[in-house]
Amino acid sequence: MSSSKISGVGHPVTPWNDSTLGLLTHGYAWLPNRMRDSDDDTVRTRLLGRPTTALHGPDAVDFFYDEKHVVRAAALPDPVLDTLFGQGAAPTPDGDAHRVRKAVFTALFEDGSGVAALGGHVAGRWRRAMAGRRLERVVLFDEAAEVLALAVCDWAGVTLSAPAAAVLARDCTAMVDGFAAPGPRYLRARRARRRQEEAQGALISEVRRAPEAEAGHSALATVAWHRDLDGNLLDLHTAAVALLDVIRPTVAVAWFATFAAHALHRWPHHRELLRADADGHYAEAFAREVRRFYPFAPFAGGLAAQDLTWHGHDIPRDSLVLLDLYGQNHDPALWEQPYRFDPHRFAHSRGPRAPLDDLVPQDGADPARDHPCPGEDITVTALATLAGELARLDYSVPDQDLTIPLSRMPTLPRSGFELRLN
Fold this sequence. Notes:
Oligomer: single chain
Low-confidence stretches: 1-13, 92-97, 349-353, 365-372
CATH class: Mainly Alpha
Number of domains: 1
């Protein structure tokens, strides 16, 4: 990818003209190019007819994640809730209700041991999946999704057969792939969401048949016995959505694992650096650079909590507010040579501002205090683990189409990255 691939499609648009078609046409390039036409890192437009203000930059991150400014309740349209997040998902409430719901996740990972354990499951499942498959050709995206499904279910206390893991992996990737896409992708995502909510609800119901004192401390048990603000157990549907909030994002690391393989193919010297990485420090930096460099989430969205002012622009209450993620991760004012893949930029801080302060791969701000997903460490750990495993794996890359189309969201190399095990 180069800067030229997201240039040339921007064009001046009168404030509040609808940009839905432009977004669907240009994908990840739409907002960064609109930002280039802006004098103050602000874009005013409409999406699906709704007044929309898009913000960019580190100050915008702080502004966006202040609940006095932007809220998530009712911000996500039903098509997104029916596919990606689920009705009643943790990102949708605000205030105390959101923090109580998010507590189920932070409790699982607060001391770091849970994340490390998940990384161990990922490594173990990957090695088992690769063993004894010499000369086979595999599509990495599909393989990584199944490995991650098995690993997160091992960690969560969910017993899963290999065929069931394959179904779960396909369903979770379908939820991510089709949440914002009209037509067949959306229909597949909705069917996948419905199927997995029923499956996870049945598991939770089974756990609740035994006394709570016997439940243990797995993620499955934690979700099954989690209580809301009123002290009541979550209803089965909401509990199933909460359990999928752990499983689905972990399986979605398959996108980044595929991008990691793409980076290792384009810049193979990183393989040796990862192989020599005894303490995992370089693997973590590599994972963060994959998440910065490659496209995943184009922006985050919410609703204005009240009438607001940003850079002299009035933002009406209940209008849509977007935070530019892909553009910020490639902003030359924040990143030296942003279209150069360089994990060393995360090896240590440079200047008065640490690089992690400006990295917004899927979200921003402090998960303990603000709204972002508390699973950031899960993603980095799982990705760093898979990157190290890929660097040590003996494989070749057959001829294939490795183009990454920025017009498609979410995107991948067109081939899914096929490799041949040696």
